Amino acid sequence: MSSMPRWFALAAAVLLGACGAPEAPPAGEVNVYSHRHYEADQQLYDRFTERTGIRVNVITASADELITRLENEGAASPADLLITVDAGRLHRAKERGLLQPIESATLQASVPEHLRDRDRQWWGLTQRARVLVYDRERVDPAELSTYEALTDEVWQGRLLVRSSENVYNQSMLASLIAHDGEEAAEAWARGIVANMARPPSGGDTDQVKAVAAGVGDVAIANTYYVARLVESADPEERRIAERLAVFFPNQQGRGTHINVSGAGVTRHAPNRDHAIALLEFFTTPDSQALFAELNQEYPVNPDVPWSATLRGWGEFKADTLDLTRLGELNDAAVRVFDRAGWR
Amino acid sequence: MEIALRPGWRLTLRTLPWGWTATALLLAGLLALPVLTVPLGALAPAGPAWTHVVETLLPRYFGNTLYLLLASGALALVIGAGTAWLVTMCEFPGRRHLRWALALPLAVPAYMAAYVYAAMGDVTGPLQKLLRAVLPGNADAVYYWNLMRIEVVAVIFALVLYPYVYLPCRALLASRAGRTLEAARMLGRGHFAVFRTIGLPLARPAMAGGLALVLMEVINDYGAVKYYGVQTFTTGIFRAWFTLGDLDTAVRLAGILMLVVFTLLVAERWQRGSARYAASGAGAQATPYPLRGAGAWLAALCCTLPVLLGFLIPVLQLIAWTVQTAPAVVDAAFLRLTLNSLGLAAAAGVLAVAVALVLGYACRLDPTRITRGATRLAVLGYSVPGAVIAVGMLTITLSVDRGLGGTTTLWLTGTLGALIAAYVVRFMAVAYLPVDAGLERIGPRLTEASRMLGARPWRTLWRIELPLLKGTLVAAATLVVIDVLKELPLTLILRPFNFDTLATRAFQLASDEQVAQSAPAALLVIACATAVVLLLHSSVDRGSHREP
Q: Is the pLDDT of residue B8 over 70?
């Protein structure tokens, strides 16, 4: 018996199924390049389509890849909106001339000034704080104070933090460079490397879990990862979350480092008006509440309440450093990491 | 006639196949274009980040990449060749099932296995839960072991990649070689002596070909090493290009990587040397040598462990997570994702094998330096990280689109066609190596005879080689299908709007640190790939022999 025809028949059948007939052209559409891939986002796209009839087309990939793609596509790019999970990358897109300024009273009103671009090219959608997570039994919160103090000798072999490939770390270091200068920031990075409980590996959640496992005593992580453990469907994860607590560093000084997930309308957006409509829709109280509830992020709109878990951690003073600086200093931060041997 | 006067058959064959050579050169050029675009576009002097990379990172990239290549390669070779030997040459309990089960880890993407093992070992994972449950009075105990280290990455690579060695070795031992070995044993040589003096030299081409694939997969991995914090050349390319924004430096790193792979390919070719084994067709398989007592059980254990660690354990864990998260995660779109994945994979598989066949056959008709060199170029894509090929492909489709006057409409960019073409570029080596080996196994004699008798190349291919190669072609297409199902970075960058595959869905959730939520999609990738592996297995079986 020959297996070839059967093979080809199968292939052809599957291929026809996959490539199928194209769907009917919609009344209007908006094309989104996004680094976000959360459940909440899809729900918001669906709601937007429901209300406006505008279809939302999405490609998700890392911001770096999307920016490279936008650059290559140039004026022919189908993209209307670029969404990233870090202000540094938005700044990079702006610097390379990939975004355009937007005049919108709605956006001006709902996004506070330090969470948006001063040239109105990008807008923060949600905030996340980079906090310290510690074990309640092994660490007295009185010992904790600032990011800078983590290089003290008492923390030797007790710190957990992920790799410097990660953009949240790059932006955190950029903020240290902005506040303390590059030399001090490099000394800080070396000090952290010297105090690490293990070489960096895994994501933020892994660092938090490693605190629970006793690998180290303090982890640096974004708030929503910790909140997810607290709210997890897995009882084991909820159990370890009880051993842990969140500390907001630098409360006596400049405040805790925050970053935004944000978006900007692309330079050559073919559906510019729809992109602005979607952007405005993201900042409405309803949408902001969804981001907060489903993804445990801090809303940018100050009128929108936080999720219960985030409220439980209390109010905190956030660093109001212009987020554009994070983008400007990103390159310097990456080099400092490499020189300090922070993998 | 001229043909009769020439002593060497190669000369006689060279009188006709210019069409083939030209087609092959054209195809090779097209395949090499997206790979070479990136380096050619940047023959510029060192980028601004180059000195920085050399001073701070390069030694670590070299060290880690070399470690992974050596450790995973050696381990995969031992597991693959060892188990192939055991299941074809020996009889022991469970052998018949292990024969096919040993191919299964091929269906598990390395990055998925890496995520699963990390999550299994962590503080909320099943391993710790089990320990807490088993050890009395330890309900609150936590245990610490650091699984996220380079040694573990190397082992995970070996566990999911060894089938690349296992499959060709087993196929070889099941064919003519098995009879040779059986003869040697009957003539009184000991078991181990036969393995060493005859088995190893005979199986060397199969082992080397498989090992080359293993090493290239290792070089290419991005997901697993990134998650485990191991810095390699591939993570370095991403860092230089995307993070430091320095394409020239990324290209230099990619260039070094391509050099390494090129060396591997040449070495693989060179070790085959001048040896020619003409197949005498598919004969009966050797009668397995019965193992007794402890030896039999040890053999069974040795063959069970790779299946357990490389397939069963990760799959069972994914099933457990799926049960937990499926109600919230699985929806009607899952069927769509599955069809997308399978459709892409099937299209790329068929196309890649067709192109590989043309390349391989042109080399056979016209075995000159030019055609050989062209095919070397054509398979380079396998050595280059998917993301680099993706951007090369993007550059090409965009310039074509601009040429077509499309400043506002993109005819090629962001289409399924471009994505499938990129897969073919990326996985040409996977299709070409087995096709080439298959053509070599048939030997030149039949082709010579057919051509001497006046048949044109197409007719010879259709009537002589194709029927003999059927099993090989299906196997080659299958390997491509499996690779495409598992492929990630290229798909992420090149796919059209609103087009997701199982792999991209699983990766997005996993990279967002929702490993349990990614399980349903991951499980489906593995299920599809497993079905394909089993299909391959049954076709190989049909092609060679029936189990007694």
A: no
Q: Which of A11, A72, A198 sits opposite B398 (nearest CB)?
A: A72
Residue A13, pLDDT score? 46
pTM for the full predicted model? 0.79
Average pLDDT over all residues of chain A = 87
* Burial profile A226-244: b = 16 or more Cβ within 10 angstroms, e = fewer: bbbbbebeeebbebbbebb
Residue B159: HSE in the Cβ half-sphere, 13 Å Cα cutoff:
26
Cα nearest neighbour of B247 on chain A: A68
Which token pair is B259? Answer: 């050099």
Looking at residue B381, what DSSP letter applies?
A: G
Pairing of strands A244-247, A123-135: antiparallel
* Contact status of B479 with chain A (Cβ, < 8 Å): no
pLDDT score of A256 more than 70:
yes
Alpha-carbon gap, residue A177 to A183, rounded angstroms: 8
Residue A34 C-alpha from the chain's centroid: 11
Chain B residues with beta carbon closer than 8 angstroms to that of A215: 144, 146
Query: Where residue A23 falls among pLDDT bands split at 50, 70, 90?
Result: very low
Spell out the SS3 assignment of chain A: CCCHHHHHHHHHHHHHHHHCCCCCCCCEEEEEEECCCCHHHHHHHHHHHHHHCEEEEEEECCHHHHHHHHHHHHHHCCCCEEEECCHHHHHHHHHCCCECCCCCHHHHHHCCHHHECCCCCCEEEEEEEEEEEEECCCCCHHHCCCCHHHHCHHHCCCEECCCCCCHHHHHHHHHHHHHHCHHHHHHHHHHHHHHECCCCCCCHHHHHHHHHCCCCCEEEEEHHHHHHHHCCCCHHHHHHHHHEEEECCCCCCCCECEEEEEEEEECCCCCHHHHHHHHHHHCCHHHHHHHHHHHCCEECCCCCCCCHHHHHHCCCCECCCCCHHHHHCHHHHHHHHHHHCCC
Percent of chain B having pLDDT more than 90?
Answer: 20
**Residue B278 — pLDDT band, cuts 50, 70, 90?**
very low
Kindly tell me the burial class for residue B243, based on how many C-beta atoms sit within 10 Å of its own C-beta (0-12, 13-18, 19 or more): buried
A263 in Cβ contact with A123 (< 8 Å): yes
Question: Which of the four pLDDT bands, split at 50, 70 and 90, describes residue A277?
Answer: very high
Burial class (CB in 10 A: 0-12, 13-18, 19+), B544: middle
The shortest C-alpha distance from B237 to chain A (Å) reads 12
Measured between alpha carbons, how far is B165 from B213 in angstroms, rounded to an integer?
Answer: 8
Question: What pLDDT sits at residue A234?
Answer: 81
pLDDT bracket for residue B302 (50, 70, 90): very high
For chains A and B, CB pairs below 8 A equal 180
DSSP B225-240: HHHTT---HHHHHHII
CB contact under 8 A, A78 and B410: yes
* pLDDT tens digits along B86-123: 998 888 988 889 998 999 998 999 989 999 998 888 87
Q: What's the whole-number mean pLDDT along residues B273-299?
A: 67
CB contact B56 to A (< 8 Å): yes
Mean pLDDT computed over B71-93? 92
The pLDDT of residue B272 is above 60: yes
Which tokens go with B449? 């005879």
The answer to whether the Cβ–Cβ distance between B410 and A73 falls below 8 Å is: yes
pLDDT in tens, B244-266: 777 677 777 877 777 777 777 77
A33 min Cα distance to partner chain B (Å): 9
Between CA B365 and CA B20 the distance in angstroms is: 8
Chain B window 304-333: which residues touch A at a Cβ cutoff of 8 Å? 324-325, 328
Spatial separation of the C-alpha atoms in residues A146 and A151, rounded to whole Å: 10
Contact B123 A209 (CB under 8 A): yes
